[in-house]
Design brief:
The strands form 4 sheets. Strands 10, 11, 12, 13, 14, 16, 17, 18 and 21 form a 9-stranded antiparallel β-sheet that branches. Strands 3-4-5-6-7 form a 5-stranded antiparallel β-sheet, with no helix packed on it. Strands 9-8-15-20-19 form a 5-stranded antiparallel β-sheet, with no helix packed on it. The protein has a single domain, classed as Distorted Sandwich (Beta-galactosidase, Chain A, domain 5), CATH 2.70.98. The N terminus is likely disordered. The chain contains 3 helices and 21 strands. The chain has 311 residues and is mainly beta.
Length: 311
Amino acid sequence: MTKIMNNLFGKATILTLTIVLSLTASLAESPNVRFASVEVAHLMEGDKKARTYARFVPERIDDFAWENDKIAFRAYGPAARERAENSGIDAWLKRVDYPIINKWYKEAEEGKSYHEDHGEGLDNYHVGSSAGCGGTGIWLNGKREPLETFTEYEIIEVSPERSRFKLTYEREIDGVVYGEEKTITIELGKRLFQVESLFLKDNQPAANLPICVGLTTHDGKAEAFFNRSEGWIATWESLGESELGTGARMDPSLLHSVVMVDREARDESHIFLIGKTDAEGRISYEAGYGWKKAGEITTREAWRNYLSNKK
């Protein structure tokens, strides 16, 4: 059953219902996605208030996108399953504190590309088959085995201060069906989103399973660095006309190792956090970025300090 938060932002009920009907119709064309019980609240066009936001985007090959006042991301869904993308996470580089997800997708449908900066930011961060910014994988035989694109989603909460949702992944590897139920939380004012993942093997919690959390180095173009005692990895690179730092962090007591991978094949080079799931098959971490053009994080050292200060 779908629950609607009518008029949460002062808009008419009919607008909210139109959006839900559109989502439902699109989901009928994507049978692998389950439209869970959800409270849906779409933003009014032109809303310039800082807040968090998250939604499924069936109009753009089943993306799922989320943002706050500093960062924005998307994950890839069922319609992208035959493409190069897998469970990697794309970073949308924003330099305004108000929501841009709906605006950029709408403008893209009208022919205005979000791969160019029109004053609010852009998506010039390449993911492809990599882990992107904080994507996970099973660490098998010394390499990342991603669990393809998500198969289901569930929105748990969308509010100005916090948004939370779950993405479900699944892939068979060597006769074993691995799964991940990834619950992501993004809070206002933070540059890192939080992840709580449950990993499964043949539908049972996978205890002590080696997991990698990765940052692409864009085929070695980004400088990778880390602080094992503090539990974080990072990259810093020139990107377009600016510079970008990405990072991922977990409890140092849960960190097994940090692995640098440098390969000639496209999208294969990364820096990884390697950890293991607990007795219940769970693991937690954070990931995010700082973009020079947005201000605040303008140098490699500033990004290092941000990760070290555990903000």
